[in-house]
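[Meeting: bench + compute handoff]

Bench side (C.D.) handed over the final construct sequence. Compute side (W.E.) agreed to return the predicted structure before the next meeting so the bench team could plan truncations. Sequence as handed over:
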Amino acid sequence: MDTNKSKIDQLLQQYKEGNCSPEEIAWLKAELSDADNDAAIDAALVASLLEPSFAAENREAQLEKTLENIKKQILATASIPREQTEEESVLADIPPVRQSRFRALWPYWAAAAAVLLVFSLFLWTPRRGPSEEQLMAGSGRDTSEELVLPGGNKATLRLADGSLVQLNDKAAGIIMGDEIRYDNGQAIAGGKQDQAAADPSKVLLELSTPEGGMYHITLPDGTKVWLNAASSLKYPVRFAQNERKVFVEGEAFFEVTKDASRPFKVRSSGQDIEVLGTSFNVNAYPENTTIRTTLITGKVKLYNDGKSSGPVYLQPGQQSSNDQGNIKVKQVDTAPFIAWKEGLFYFEETPMEEALQQIGRWYNVAVNYSSGIPQTHFYGRIKRNKPLHEVLEILAEGGLYFKLDKSQGKQTLQVSPADQR
């Protein structure tokens, strides 16, 4: 379906806030139901989803009623005869199809309805999937214990003398200067920079996030870096006169301050990225063999260790996949690869293993597959501030069953197909 995604996202947000005009709602209906096949199903879903029936009060009852309406509309649309007039269709120009086909596809489109409601409007909590008690079952824990909550602002800073500072989780980042401060202006204890160092460009500090943590930093040149969970950034007290070089492990998003006389270089697991002023995302977790670099603005140049081939250049909207020196470049929708910085899981045909890897890092849980890794994909968006059980309820719509188990001090998420539970 070829649609203007940014406009759809904008209008869906306006609709949720009650600011959509009738013309804009009509446009949304047309765009979201524009498909060559099964258009009548899409139309029924969209027509129900976009009806302004979500009152603040009686929210759960309204949402339950909406889901039932979706099912009824699908079944009703299924029985429309082929000679029905255009005006009698749910939406104009939507071809009717046979009832038996609708009934066969109902489970799939029920899941689709859930995806549209949760991921686009952030309004619905699915009825199926494990409850909080079910998730805790078998763990040997009292279900009244604290839920598995999402990650937050967590990081440590290793100073030049090797001492480790646990950073304040009430702040979201730090700012480098003669004195290291939080982004709220508060000074960091022990963060006074040593002005007597012979060469500050060779004195490295390290900002690290644990699983379930994220943090950002403003470097001495004004460059901003956001670290995702289980990531680290090594950087000098002061950049050298001829270059600015940092080292990344894990995932980081960069907004590089332009300085034509000093290229900015990012070193990550056998790959170097060189830029002047740009924004990009690097995913270089050590457990993955592939380094992914996604360019948002500007231009970057990639180098490989020990490779005779020349550098690879990226343009905005391109992503490189570096698999042990073999670099491939493709055009991508950049939104899924930087959504973590905006507080979202953004899945766009994301393999289940990769999606659960993201979730495991953010909630600090290990992931174990009881029957091998199912070959399925996830679509849509989920806010990262939800408790784990709410996220799993959503993902369970894909035919999966989850159970939390605690052993050796860390919680493990057991994953299996729902029909094998």
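W.E. noted at the follow-up: The two ends are 35 Å apart (CA to CA). C.D. will use this when planning the next construct.
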